[in-house]
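Predict the 3D structure for this chain.
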Amino acid sequence: MGSASLTLMAVPPLVANGWRNRLLALAMMLFAVSCLAVGSQQGGATPVLERSVKAAFLYKFLGYLEFSSEPGPTLVVGVLGADDVAAELAQITSGRTVGNRNVSVRRLADGDALTGLQLLFVGGDANQPGAALRAAEKNGTVTVTEQDDGLQSGSVINFRLVEDRVRFEVSLPAAERCNVRLSSRLLSVAYHVQKGGQ
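Done. Predicted structure below.
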């Protein structure tokens, strides 16, 4: 299992040009999912491996988001209620870029301001996830959760464990509310896509 974790750390950076690089990044994202499945078959998915997979997904999500306004030279990812994911994500993104932008990871505590973020992960340990989701939506921040009713609560992307694999579902209405377009490549590998009226 340790080797699977190390493989996740070696995911290459996603660059803006070249469809081959995007396909490679997508393949690596799917590989991360399969690593979790292998770990599960060998005696249950460990929380450490699950958190590593989610951190890798968060990094990759950034390359599949098309913001309506230019986010600036640095993409900022906030992590609330999941310090272990924040630490893993900081390690994954260290020295890497998405397109030509650096990535910064900000650990957040309940009550912290949620401004200046492009992506917000609300972990299971957050005390008031609903309030964080509402505040993030007002700021045009893409939100990612890990709860059973994540999309119903207003999240754009929600992690689910499906047959011992980390999968994700997306909400197109929530993405529209925060003025972001989700790449068709991201939608094609989602476990479920919520469209208008669902």
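Residues 19-41 form the longest helix (23 residues).
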